[in-house]
Amino acid sequence: MQMKRRTIVVGGGALLAGAATAFVARGRGGEPISRRSFDWKASDFRAGGSAAVPADLPEPIFRAKPQCVVTSAQTLGPCRTSDVPVRKDVTEGVAGLPTRISLRLVEAESCEPIHGADVEIWHTSADGVYSGEAASICNREDADARSASFLRGRQISDENGVVSFLTVYPGWYPGRAVHVHLRILVEDRELLVSQLLFDDALSDLVYEGHPDYAGRPQRSTMNGGDSVFSSGEAAQFIFDFEKLDPGVLQASYTIGLVRS
């Protein structure tokens, strides 16, 4: 049987699985980091969250040659909570474009995978709201959100240094680009707190056409104008991504860590 080719969008260009390089398009100031047209429509993706996502999604594809550089730290932010459960599906039934986030952890110096790391993620709902008993600015005193723990989860990296979370595409809120928070512990020691971004053109496609994001005003902040990332560094933190056949978005990123 012939293997179907999968096309990964990498930092501004398309990468066929197994290729090693791709073109990168970068912007400055408040402009999008990338301005590309995709051969996709918002209707190509499922709606309603993770409920109808098949269990047998294809394995994530990472770049053939990881950059093997240290992933820079970013602010923790006020919206992290404690007692985050270990789980793959973090949605708790919330609506949104189903998205699988896959992270590969490697030693920055050797590119060897790091297994047994405790990886935590958290991000907003399609409405731009965080769950949990976090600072009031995180969920605008939304009682339902404060009593829930959606879009938060932890996993332990496998022998390949990989974790995958089933979630939904994050919503936006003023002053911030579309992002996911992460925290990584190895042997109970915190090695990294950081954030990752989504491609601006991809966010435009989702917010302008996907039904789970309808009714919200146009987002105010692109990657190049984010209040946390400088315009010069934002491009280094953008997920690689692809559209999986079941109508699920795959977002992938390789994280380089130093354990000494």
UniProtKB/TrEMBL annotation:
<dbReference type="GO" id="GO:0008199">
    <property type="term" value="F:ferric iron binding"/>
</dbReference>
<keyword id="KW-0560">Oxidoreductase</keyword>
<keyword id="KW-0223">Dioxygenase</keyword>
<dbReference type="InterPro" id="IPR000627">
    <property type="entry name" value="Intradiol_dOase_C"/>
</dbReference>
<feature type="domain" description="Intradiol ring-cleavage dioxygenases">
    <location>
        <begin position="101"/>
        <end position="198"/>
    </location>
</feature>
<dbReference type="GO" id="GO:0016702">
    <property type="term" value="F:oxidoreductase activity, acting on single donors with incorporation of molecular oxygen, incorporation of two atoms of oxygen"/>
</dbReference>
<dbReference type="InterPro" id="IPR015889">
    <property type="entry name" value="Intradiol_dOase_core"/>
</dbReference>
<dbReference type="Pfam" id="PF00775">
    <property type="entry name" value="Dioxygenase_C"/>
</dbReference>
<keyword id="KW-0614">Plasmid</keyword>
<protein>
    <submittedName>
        <fullName>Putative dioxygenase</fullName>
    </submittedName>
</protein>
